Amino acid sequence: MYDIHCHLIYGEDDGSRSIEESIEMIKIYKSMGYDGSILTPHYDEGRFLVTSEKTIEKIGLIKEKLNKENIEFELFTGNEIQIDENTINLIKNNKVLRLNNSRYILCELPFSTKPLYAKEIFYKMQLEGRIPIIAHPERYSYIKSDIEYFSNFIKSGCLLQLNLSSLTSNSLSSISKELLERNMIHFVATDSHQSKWRNPNVKDELDILKDLVGDEKFVQLTATNPKKVIKDQFISSDYDKVIKLSDEVYKKKKKRWFKFWG
Fold first, then answer.
1. Which stretches does DSSP call E strand in 85-231?
2. What do you get for the CA distance between the two ends of the chain, in Å?
3. d(CA 154, CA 139)
4. Closest Cα to residue 37, out of 18, 64, 63?
5. Can you give the C-alpha Rg of the chain in angstroms?
6. What is the DSSP letter of 242?
7. 74 Cβ neighbours under 8 A, 6+ residues apart
8. In what order do the strands lie in the sheet with 74-77?
9. How many CB atoms sit inside 10 A of residue 172's CB?
């Protein structure tokens, strides 16, 4: 398995606080069965501006320490970018990092207000040959009343990444399972931050995921698609496989769903 969203870069945002903590997090990753991760520190004008230079510097230092301790774990560069009107310029000027220098860009949206500019920004990214990956859609407050908001982005070719921790969250588990049930998720990730708080120990969540989606889809979400990102291979949004709210199939599945999870 490979993670595409985490905060192992230390001392720069709300993630790992030291290189020692980053190594401890990696040990947890390995115990979960992960072989590597893309490191995605925040680039957010209002909070953290972890530049590409700083990310590359810190990832080099973490790799050096891993080598000294004979720990095998692959690390790749990236950013979690809070999109705004300046995002396209940041990407063009290499101020922020695409995921392992691929066509894929991990994008965070505002949490409480729909970004009216998102459609245009994603369209411009795609004109440049980039593919937006929307981080943790289940966490945005507006999805509960308008899940089709993200369905429309999938239709345009965007991909969605679910946080594994949301599967065991009292407030987010229901919407997370609905997104999976409707085939709207293309990746799962840990979004791990520290060794204790929001750490990579996601055993329970991985077990839940496998029960929900089955072995084949589990491998696709945790290994196949993440490796395609790392290798810069195309991933279809599979919009034709998204179950629409109006579909009779979905209505029947939702009835069984809430009976099972109630």
1. 104-108, 131-135, 159-163, 187-189
2. 30
3. 17
4. 63
5. 18
6. S
7. 2, 35, 36, 37
8. 2-3, 36-39, 74-77
9. 19
pTM: 0.93
CA 4 to chain centre: 6
pLDDT tens-place values along the chain, 262 residues long: 999 999 999 999 999 999 999 999 999 999 999 999 999 999 998 788 898 999 999 999 999 999 999 999 999 999 999 999 999 999 999 999 999 999 999 999 999 999 999 999 999 999 999 999 999 999 999 998 899 999 999 999 999 999 999 999 999 999 999 999 999 999 999 999 999 989 999 999 999 999 999 999 999 999 999 999 999 999 999 999 999 876 655 555 555 544 444 4
- Taking the C-alpha atoms of residue 28 and residue 22, their distance in angstroms, rounded to an integer, is 10
How far does CA 45 lie from the centroid of its chain? Answer: 20
**Cross-strand bridge partners of residue 104:** 131
